[in-house]
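re: ur question from yesterday

yeah so i grabbed the chain u mentioned. its 323 aa long if i counted rite. heres the sequnce exactly as i have it in my notes:
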Amino acid sequence: MGHRIVLPNKGSYEVFKTQEFQCPDPRPKEVKIEVYYSGVNFADCLMRQGLYQDAPAFPFTPGYEISGIITAVGKDSKYNVGEKVIGGTLFNGYCSEITLPEEQVIPLPNHFSLAEGASILVSYLTSYMVFIEQARAREGDEILIDCATGALGFLSYEILKKKNVDVIGLTSSPNKKEYFKQKGKTILLPTELGNRKFDIILNSRGGGTLKQDFKRLKPNGRLISIGISNALNASFFNKWKTLLTMPWFWVVRLINQNKGVFGLNVLNLFSTPEIIQQALSKLTTFDIKAPEVIIFKASEIGKAQRYIEQKKSTGKVLISWRD
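ran it thru and got these structure tokens back, copy pasting raw so excuse formatting
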């Protein structure tokens, strides 16, 4: 029997329950995976707080990315039992076993450990879609990333490192600023930006910061919104303030100012596997490194989410099913 973490209803860090379940055998072109690590994301924290509109009805199992070893394959599968893989799934990733369509799975790159493999999928896909598909980053671009000190920021730097662009990251923590400065990255506090303008801005905070970032765009600039992290762990009033201050962008204004605004929910792309496969097929071409990983036991999922919400992480938070 496998085990999965269930979110029975919205609540605090103690709300999670662990259940036994029977993982289904793979059908044609599916694989069954013994999960070693599951990734923990901001979106999962929003689900726990009841703020993620695309989440299933309670109860459900969160989670979008796993790494592990194939234990069974369906008919006509291109994979073999014993292969190490990375997998992406629309929910149900917090589990010790999972059966997935093979188009949602890729072999673990040789230079990654299983923990490193579980750390890259969602962050890589987000970075790829933002900077390669939507913003189309090119030589000479000045880029601002407001979530630069976690796994997403790290993978964004990795994807952009060969494009000869100027990347500025933001953090609200002076300690993180110094930490990343020692690693050769330019990280600023929001108050240090002054009147600087950018070609591309990645905004994860939402709310009124989108309007501020739109004003920071150069002509032909591109603003990409990927979330509302300012609502995470906020008071009830500030949650609603973040949501209600999300701006509407009038098309005529975009035309007159020669600017573009994009939105991305990469998790919804798991319903279009051909897009996921196209992005994953490019993974090795970027010669990326994995972010540092912070590992909690699966039984410590509440602690893992608290760690994210307290903005302590400088890498990727995982839960382990092997301890």
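noticed a couple things. The chain has two domains: 2-120+290-320, 123-266. also The chain has a mean pLDDT of 92.
anyway ttyl
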